[in-house]
Amino acid sequence: MTLEVQTRQIEDGVAVVAPTGRLDVAGAPTLKDAISEVLKNGQARVVIDMEGVSFVDSTGLGSVISALKQIRSSEGDLRLAAPNQQVRVVLELTTLDRVFPYYATVEEALTGF
Question: Any idea which fold 4-103 has?
Answer without folding.
Answer: Transcription Regulator spoIIAA (3.30.750)
